[in-house]
Design goal:
The complex is a heterodimer of chains A (725) and B (200). Chain A is of the alpha+beta class. Helices cover 25% and strands 26% of the residues of chain A. In chain B, helix 2 packs across helix 5 and helix 3 (144-157) packs parallel to helix 5 (180-196). The chains are: A alpha+beta (725), B alpha+beta (200). The complex binds FE2/S2 (inorganic) cluster (2 copies).
């Protein structure tokens, strides 16, 4: 094993365990004053008046921005990726908790106190506060996957094949609104120096924040710098530049001081998206020996009635390609309500969609009296049946095999309610994981000094995946230097462009750019030495020629009067998307213990086996895998944002009532990486790992609960009352 | 769940339609009984933090968490919820773990406060900090200072350090990145090596 893949400790570990890692709200910006949001208490209507007089008279208050007096933005067109509203540009209210004012004061305490004394008068309109089971107003997404995919797809004749199938499953599954809840709340510090804007903001996309701020504020992107050296978790809610970052910049301009705006936890439920509620109708038809002949997946997902752009949760994409089914139909519809705009949340589409699909497969296995793993293998897709293309690589069979073996799946009794531990019912369930391999254009710069130190720079982000570390590893291996000599720098829009840290694409995008920059640097060194770049290697601070002769790099640089040498390169996707179906895969095997007397469900054991291509760091990869699995536990058993139907207000918008997994909820988790570098996907052979492990967890848990209790739970989260005796 | 089967955007009859939005910073004096009158002035206090005396002016309502983060530039202590629900703000007061967001700064004068910045001895990490790095017991790192302060106190409190007990006692600290199994490994590792060294 080289440096790539080695389980080295995180290079930013020391900063994180000593408290020295500074997140957005923690930048030392002298003179910063504090902004606090005020949010609407109605779900639909118009703000008639924001009554600010009492608050304005309070100590320290500098300004109160309202729809009436807020600076006008240059461009407020809603766009799918860039959400400018609501930024106080008009008085319309489309959901409860929409920002209607920003209070700026000298201290945080003063701003919070004043915000509590701002009152609004409204004209309240009738509101549709929740997506219920009435789907009469459902509509076709206008901009599904940014126009890259069709919302509906079909092959063969799914309905005819279903009607003719001897074994049929037809079921409806629902998943609730869930909130990302990164531990770091959204935060922005904005400082103007003349017409130049510097913003420290909690983001998964510094370049995107720069572009959005420039466009909305009507200034040149070259005059905006966005800085974010550490992001305290995002899970999708920091991928888009949401209104609070824009409002901080507007407020800073109004008071002519740097402004710090940090959301409180309650506002984290109303200001930066959520996983939308879904209702999914699945129909499967099969022959008695387990060939699935028809699959129909109709997905309805929640949208906002506000004029905020569109987000359509792609719940059916996995159903299009996971199994070799000859007749399949998939549709996506939206149901708009008076709530905010939903957004990407860890494994958008696949996390919700796989709950329905992989539950339905389990229901079919039960109907066929067949082992659920055997049914999946019986319908294994050797190539992508939707795109009619080979997979770039697919080691799902190996994941099934390795996971089943580690779990002891072969011992599983077919019938439910067969396993017990005293009074506790025990159940074993499994499900498949999959997620697309994404990759975007990215740039990186490498600079090597005569002292052998190397800096690697890219305008990417560290959101927990270990980007500092993997950037250093890839650089070290490519340049033949120890990791300790490499300093990775990221999180600054002034540095070479990198894409959003979302869609599990950071490694495939940024690290391939690092490899390209290393090639460029080697070529420059070769040119200095008068050698052919294709024939030289770098090792231990030397340039190794084709005949094995070594030339010290410091000597080479000195000969040309140089202290350092630098190269920047861009790596762009090739035609792999046209040639291959690109996916990572995995399998979950779960044991649950259900106490029917008190309705307690505990996850007792978990084996996750993953085909993520090349593993860059065995230590941080395992962390991502267990983290993703635990995110799935929340989905399965705990998480649901509850809406008060009357007011459209979230009633559990805090971390006491919105339950997320804690340490005592989590068992030992075995992770297995079926490591097969995928060079068809990209030069490094990585497939992406941030979201894959979450996919399928909810279904595996629900399937295990069925196996333990004989009860099929089709609505997440699975509750005490679902399993009470 | 119930959904109103009503026409979207239909108006409630009789709603007032007078638009009256006040100007920014209305240039009139605040009425006599504004909340402003009820705001006590800041007072000067002294806190013992990480072995140093720090003097600062705080309002009675200022929490220890906001004093650390906003006034003393000790930003290692994190704010995750500000309501005592997540543990990100865990610090030690006289050796006990407390949520700094639920502690008023004025109330801890004269007490020994330790934050994550004061846990290491110079360049020598506290054993829990070193174990967190070894076991990769974090990802984004935002919950990490709170986890480490909790873990250090847990070990000092002398509980059994079997995995079930660690999980229970560490459940006041939320990690949304889901580093829990590695946190258990890290805490257990320190406990075992302490026991081996006879340090309890
Ligand atoms: S910030 Fe104090 S417990 Fe969450
Ligand atoms: S490491 Fe990110 S929340 Fe714990």
């Amino acid at each position: 094993m080289g440096i790539i893949g080695a389980p080295i400790a995180r290079v930013d570990g020391r900063a994180k365990v000593t408290g020295r890692a500074r997140y957005a709200a923690e930048a030392a910006v002298p003179g910063a004053v504090h902004a606090v949001l005020v949010q609407s208490t109605i779900a639909a209507g118009v703000v008639l008046a924001v009554e600010t007089a009492a608050a304005e008279g309070m100590p320290g208050v500098l300004a109160i921005l309202t729809p009436q007096n807020a600076p006008r933005l240059a461009d407020v067109r809603p766009q799918a990726q860039l959400v400018p509203n609501p930024t106080l540009q008009d008085a319309t209210v489309a959901y409860n908790g929409q920002t209607i004012a920003v209070v700026v004061a000298e201290t945080l305490q003063q701003a919070e106190a004043a915000a509590a004394h701002v009152r609004a008068r409204y004209r309240a309109d009738e509101a549709i506060t929740e997506m219920g089971d009435d789907l009469a107003d459902a509509y076709v997404p206008k901009n599904f996957r940014n126009g890259m995919r069709k919302p509906d797809s079909a092959r063969g004749d799914a309905d005819a094949a279903f009607n003719a199938a001897p074994v049929q499953i037809s079921a409806t599954y629902t998943t609730p609104v869930e909130h990302h809840n990164p531990m770091e709340p959204h935060a922005t510090i904005a400082r103007w120096d003349g017409d130049r804007l510097t913003v420290w903001t909690a983001t998964q996309y510094v370049s995107g924040a720069r572009a959005t701020l420039a466009r909305l504020l009507g200034i040149d992107a070259g005059n905006v710098r966005v800085i974010c050296p550490f992001t305290g978790g995002g899970f999708g809610c920091k991928g888009t530049t949401w209104p609070p970052a824009v409002l901080a910049a507007m407020a800073a301009r109004s008071v002519n001081r740097p402004v710090k705006l940090v959301l409180d936890r309650r506002q984290m439920y109303t200001s930066n998206g959520f996983r939308p509620r879904t209702l999914q109708k699945l129909r499967l038809g099969a022959t008695p020996d387990g060939q699935i002949v028809s699959l129909r997946h109709d997905g309805f997902t929640q949208m906002s009635l506000g004029d905020f752009g569109e987000f359509a949760e792609p719940v059916g994409l996995a159903s299009e390609m996971l199994y070799a089914v000859p007749n399949a139909a998939v549709t996506h519809r939206l149901v708009a309500v008076n709530q905010g705009l939903p957004t990407y949340m860890r494994a958008p589409g696949e996390a919700s969609g796989s709950f329905a699909l992989e539950s339905a497969i389990d229901e079919m296995a039960a109907a066929l009296n067949m082992d659920p793993l055997d049914l999946r293998l019986r319908n294994y897709a050797e190539s992508d049946p939707h795109e009619n293309r080979p997979f770039s690589s697919k080691a799902l069979r190996e994941c099934y095999r390795a996971g089943a073996e580690a779990f002891g799946w072969a011992q599983r009794p077919l019938a439910p309610r067969c396993l017990r531990d005293g009074d506790v019912l025990v159940g074993w369930g499994m499900a498949t994981a999959l997620y697309p391999i994404n990759r975007s254009a990215a740039q990186a710069t490498l600079r090597m000094g005569a002292d052998g130190r190397v800096f690697v720079r890219s305008g990417t982000q560290e959101i927990g995946g270990g980007t500092y570390t993997t950037m250093a590893q890839v650089t070290a291996e490519a340049l033949g230097v120890p990791v300790g000599q490499v300093t990775a720098q990221l999180g600054d829009s002034a540095w070479p462009h990198a894409p959003v840290s979302g869609g599990s694409q950071t490694s495939a995008s940024v690290l391939n750019a690092v490899v390209a920059a290393a090639d460029a640097l080697r070529a420059r060194l070769a040119a200095l030495a008068g050698l052919d770049a294709r024939q030289v290697q770098l090792a231990a601070g030397t340039l190794v020629g084709p005949d094995g002769t070594r030339l010290r790099i410091d000597v080479l640089l000195a000969r040309h009067g140089l202290d350092t040498i630098e190269a920047t390169a861009e790596s762009v996707p090739g035609d792999e998307k046209q040639r291959f179906s690109l996916h990572s895969f995995g399998a979950h095997f779960v044991e649950v213990q259900v106490d029917p007397a008190i309705g307690r469900i505990r996850i007792a054991r978990h084996v996750g086996a993953f085909d993520t291509g090349r593993v860059l760091n065995a230590r941080t990869a395992r962390s991502q895998a267990i983290g993703g699995i635990i995110y799935g536990y929340g989905m399965a058993l705990l998480e649901k944002t509850e809406v008060d139907a009357e007011t459209g207000r979230y009633v559990n918008a805090n971390l006491s009532d919105y339950l997320v997994p804690v340490n005592a909820d989590v068992p030992d988790i075995v992770t297995i990486f079926v490591e097969k570098p995928d060079r068809n996907a990209n030069p490094l052979g990585v497939k992406g790992l941030g979201e894959l492990p979450t996919v399928g967890v909810a279904a595996a848990v629900a399937n295990a609960v069925y196996h333990a209790t004989g009860r099929r739970v089709r609505d997440l989260p699975i509750r005490v009352e679902d399993v009470l005796a | 769940m119930a959904t109103f089967a009503l026409t979207r955007r239909a108006l409630i009859a009789g709603a007032a339609l007078v638009i009256a939005i006040p100007r920014l910073r209305a240039p009139r004096a605040a009425p006599a009984a504004t909340p402003a009158a009820a705001t006590p002035a800041p007072s000067l206090i002294s806190l013992q933090i990480n072995g140093h005396e720090r003097r600062l002016a705080v309002e009675p309502r200022t929490t220890l968490l906001d004093a650390l983060r906003e006034q003393l530039d000790l930003t290692g202590t994190k704010k995750g919820c500000d309501r005592g629900a997540c543990g990100a703000c865990t610090v030690h007061v006289d050796g006990r773990r407390v949520n700094a967001c639920l502690t008023l700064a004025m109330r801890v004068q004269g007490r020994a406060i330790t934050t994550i910045e004061g846990l290491a001895q110079g360049d020598d990490l506290h054993p829990v900090q070193a174990a967190f790095i070894r076991h990769d017991a974090f990802q984004c790192g935002y919950c990490t200072p709170g986890q480490i302060m909790s873990a250090a106190a847990f070990l000092a409190e002398g509980h059994d350090a079997d995995p079930a007990t660690i999980r229970e006692w560490m459940s006041g600290n939320i990690c949304r990145c889901g580093a829990y199994p590695h946190i258990v490994d890290a805490v257990r590792d320190v406990a075992i090596s302490r026991a081996a060294n006879g340090a309890g």
